Structure formats: C-alpha cells, structure tokens
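FIELD: query
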Amino acid sequence: MSTQKTVKIIISGGGSGGHIFPALAIADAIRAKVPEAAILFVGAKGKIEMEKVPLAGYPIKGLWISGLHRQLTLRNLAFPFKLISSLWKSIAIVRSFHPDVVVGVGGFASGPVLQVASWLGIPTLIQEQNSYPGLTNRILAKKVDKICIAYDRMDRYFPKEKLVMTGNPVRKSFSSSTINKQEALAYFGLAEGKATLFSFGGSLGAQSINEALAATSELMKKHPEVQLLWQAGKLYYERFKDCEMAQLPNVTIRPFIDRMDLAYAMTDLVIARAGALTIAELSLLGQAAMLIPSPNVAEDHQTMNARALEEKEAGVLLKDADASTQIISKAIELLKDKALLAKLSENVKGLAEPEAANLIAAEVLSLIKEKGNR
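FIELD: result
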C-alpha cells in the first residue's frame, strides 16, 4: 500500500469491555500492518472506553449518547436529544479528521458515526461479535460496505454479500502467554492438586452470580478438594468480601483480576457470563466453561451466544434463574466428569480464530484500497 498519504481510520463504539478490548486489538493489528496509520476512537462519554483507549495510546472523542432502555423510563425521553447532539458532533469529527474508512464495533456510540460516514460516502465496516446482532448493527447493516462476523448463519440478519467470517479478536496477552498452571496457582496463592473453579462476571461484576455463590457456602465446605477464585467485581466486592463463602479456606475472593491469562491458565472450569469477548477468550485457550447468560442485555444475545456453543458441545448453559440453586452443584458435577471437560475444551478450541484481529484489519485496509481504485 502506498505511504504517500497517511491512512486515517475512525473506530467507533464501546460501552463495555466486550466492545472496547476487541476494538483495541483491531487498532493494534492495523498499526502492525500500517505503522503510520492515524487512528481516532469515538466512544460514549462516561463509559469504559474513555479510560481504556487513552491508556492504550490512542486518542478518543466522546459523544453524549446512550442506548434505549427496554422498559418505559424517563431516561428514554432524553434519547432523541442525545441522538441529535451525537449526530452533529459526529459530523464535526468526521469532517475534521477526514477518515479513509470508519469502523463500528457495536454499542450505541457507533450508530451516529457510521451513519454520518454513510451520508458522506466514506467506506464503512462493522464488526458483529454476537450470534444475535444488536439493534445498532441491525440498523447499520444496510448502509455499511462490509460486516465482519464470528458466528455461522448471520445471513438471517445481514445481507449475505457483505459478510466476512473473521471471528472475534482478543487481547494479545492471551495468545502470547507462556505461563504454566503451577506458576498461575502460585500467583493467586491457590493450592496445587485441587480442582479449580474461576468465576467472574465482567470487571464490574454480576450481581446474580455473586448472590448465587454467596448462598452455596455449605456445599463448598463439603468439597475441600475443590477451590474457587471468585472475581466479585468492583461494584460488589465490599458487599460480598465478608460473607461466609468468601471466608472459606478453599475460596479466594478478589474485586478484579488484572491477569486474566494467569486465571485461565490454572482453571479446570470457568463460570462466567456469555459475552462475545469472554467466549472468544475461552475459544482461543480451549477453556471448558459453564455459561450463565445475563438476563439484562439487549435482545438477550448472551443466551443466543451460549446456545450456539451448547449446540456444538463447546460449553454448558446454566440459566441465570437457576444459578442460585445450581451454580456450585452443577460445577462440581462437571469437574467430576473429566471426559466431558476434555470434550468441551476440544470443541470450544475448534471455534477459535486466533488471527481475527489481523483478518479484520485486512478487511479495513482493503476498503481503503478499493476506494482508491474507483
């Protein structure tokens, strides 16, 4: 590719780590291919991307935007004003930056920017991480040039001719880690020779998973051969750190795990939500998991994700409503079935696409080349 003109790319979206960490992986992959590329992020004010993107070394601009709430709420009354404000600011950002291509990674911030790029005739690409697309990407699908996907049969929701199977990108640390199980156990102060569970619900935590774990201390007492690393999340750690479950000798509770690669390396079974980023990480590492889809996400897409894995015997689905009575009993039952754990691990690894970030970066750059050849 010619380097006479600096390649300029906007990456928009966010709202959660599940959106922004893959977006950063895509940006890094673009930079690896075109080191002089100028990359600007556009996110939602007050959301995780406004902190994480600058820490990763990229500039970001924030929009006053949020999603529509499914229940009738007064907060929805502000949505039209936020949308108009975000469209005007997106016009200013796009005209000022002059991007060669605009990428949307999902989340409400991607809508206005991709819409403006479409109006101005700028090439556009969206990355859909889930097996059931969110509202923003379903609306944008007719306007964009390419759609990068991670699941089969997405032509049910998107124009087939625009689809490119790439998989979901994950952070570099997962593919480059060489930590063994013994080192990982030592890092967290856990014992060797015990079956190890690792439970997490995202960086902020998952209330229903935390409550379910807290209610199962009696069962954990009866199984000292099993140990649990419990990420309660920043929102819930203070509430749960002194509960009976957290005080057991075979339970270690933390507010946040900054070395997820180490946590995965020592774990026999993961207990987690079914977000796209989590599933991409599980796939890359071949990690057996019991997935508890969040009931609070748009269009219940986490249930769709978990079912997609369960259909391929690559994960076990436990409904959120059943977690309070089954979370530990089901996990212990799975730990005892070594053949099933091995099958789950093998099958989920078969779904991995370790080159996802590079594949998406190549599609982004190809749109620039196609535009130049017109």
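FIELD: remark
The radius of gyration is 21 Å.
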